[in-house]
DNA sequence: CTTTGGCACTCGCCACCACTGAGTGCCAGG
DNA sequence: CCTGGCACTCAGTGGTGGCGAGTGCCAAAG
């Protein structure tokens, strides 16, 4: 077991390293933190910490830097979440309040988060799996051409063009629209398939083909839209990464372009509470020298999607976690209002 | 005036420099290109080219590299557009054919372009200024709450929530919907304002407030949506930029995050034909060491939007131009079909 | 058992230096 | 106008030595 002071030393190392980006030695530590012991003692502690794998030396005769394991301990036991200042909170609210639609909310959120944390921000669009249907609209554009518009409670709109096997009359279409809506409005996506399964049967023979096609398209759209989208921003902050650019930054940029990777990344985060994944804890190889701080957000109690930031393992965890949490809360509020 | 051979020397310099990324000297030139003259002669030519500002030396006793002006001459008079190979064309078509909706088309295009050119790709969404209205839908969600859905001929859908000053009945709403559609469907966005200007007057006193609000929102949406969106991809390719990373790459990433900057960038491109902006020809400072190759694309004859790539001034212009042109053509086809 | 000061050692970093070689400009002769 | 020759420049390379931050270990003190 590590003594209280050794933890204190680790905390000091992490803080200094995050601040200076340079390996930190025993002497510098005693000078910058009031540990109340001599450098020699700190050296002993550092040896112990290294023994346990919390810190490491880049090369002999250099200071120590925290390992992933060290950061993990720091995050779990030594660091709190640093709340934002009141002006910051106000700025967030003002900025997000100006949003006009869902795209705008997500866009603003991603910019805000990037600016606040000075890191790469990732915001997932509110998921549709837990969403409900607000309205289904059918428009006849041509005799045998129908447009399906799906509106969700999170404010998202999706449309599909449908080529019908046979022309359908306006009245039949209006009929279908009405019946469809009476069955699915307010219901969850996942419940829709069984709610509409028998709908085609109640129509005239001549319209059944078309109705089936429309229903099939609706279900397809629901499934497709359950695959989630996301937005990223602040990639310019990657330039603050380290000195050894090309090698570090390249795989990160590549990973960030793969929506699939990012979705998986966010998906791995716990549904509730903040998740911090440090360095090699990230499954994706390109992100082995980055940490991901993610948290769920939602309009009500339930999280409907996640957002977070990606940055170097050497990041200001308390500050970042504070910003991420605050932004998630305000976005949740905004969504609840609309 | 520059002799034929001197132009040939310039071409050789550009080609070699693009290939090797290293300043090219007179001896290397005569070895790798059959110029039929000695290094000494080439040196004289180079001196002349430098005098005219087409090439420069990073430092004395180093080879020459092309200047922006040199690239300009190369692009204008020495380089053709290198057509893609048949397999490449086929790959493009296959890849784009799989797209299911507009977002998907744009997304695939941007990935394709980034991969093909190994540079940063920028694709503007089909512009709405030249678009027409396909349908306007009004949905009553609550007594005094209406949702406006706008569908364009390019397949885009926009929605707005409207809080009405007074409740409006279903019949009045249906009436409004019908009249609205009969006036604006098939019309250009720019024509809509005057087409609906007198519409409110024909309604009952009690509904006029709501009708005006709805119309105002519609116009607002049209204006807002005329501000164009775009998608970028391939930022990982920036790592191939040069050796002096942080300084070069940072402003570029920053510029790329500013949609406004990019839109202006594409906006500066000619409406028809390909536009190449080299280095300082770009208005934006952060892009002073990049070149932009852009071209309009559209479903018919008219260009409805633009796409292009951003890369180092030291890029393979013929190849890049070929790829950009080919992709634009195929996207145009896809859009025309849907 | 912990803490401390002392001490020898390691090793990355930097400044200095000389050498090498690619590349240049110039010039005189074909 | 082209060419070969020649002197010159200068970035890059590699070797050397001193500096200093930082370490590990140890013996003595608390």
Largest sheet of chain A: 5 strands, antiparallel
Number of DSSP strand runs of chain A: 10
Q: Using the alpha-carbon principal axes, give the shape of chain A.
A: elongated
Counting H and I runs of at least 4 residues, what is the number of helices of chain A? Answer: 12
Portion of residues within helices of chain A: 40-55%
Gap between N and C termini of chain A: 51 Å
Please tell me the overall pLDDT of chain A: 88
Beta content of chain A: 15-25%
Kindly provide the radius of gyration of chain A, computed on alpha-carbon positions and rounded to a whole number of angstroms. Answer: 26 Å
Please tell me about this protein's structure.
- Two copies of one chain form a homodimer.
- By secondary structure, chain A is α+β, with helices and mostly antiparallel strands.
- Chain A has helices at residues 4-20, 26-32, 39-51, 68-78, 86-97, 102-117, 170-184, 192-196, 205-226, 245-257, 259-267, 317-337, and strands spanning 55-56, 65-66, 120-124, 133-142, 145-152, 157-163, 230-233, 275-278, 290-297, 305-312.
- The longest helix of chain A has 22 residues, at 205-226.
- The first copy, chain A, starts with a helix and ends with a helix.
- In chain A, 40% of the residues are buried.
- The A-B interface holds A 100-101, 134-135, 137, 139, 141, 147, 149, 151, 155, 157-161, 224, 233-236, 238-239, 245-246, 249-250, 253-254, 256-257, 338 and B 100-101, 134-135, 137, 139, 141, 147, 149, 151, 155, 157-161, 224, 233-236, 238-239, 245-246, 249-250, 253-254, 256-257, 338.
- Chain A binds a DNA duplex (30 and 30 nucleotides) through helix 2 and helix 3.
- Chains A, B: Pfam families: HrcA (PF01628), HTH_DeoR (PF08220).
- Chains A, B: Residues 34-62 form the HTH deoR-type domain.
- Chains A, B: Keywords: Repressor, Stress response, Transcription, Transcription regulation.
- Chains A, B: Negative regulator of class I heat shock genes (grpE-dnaK-dnaJ and groELS operons). Prevents heat-shock induction of these operons.
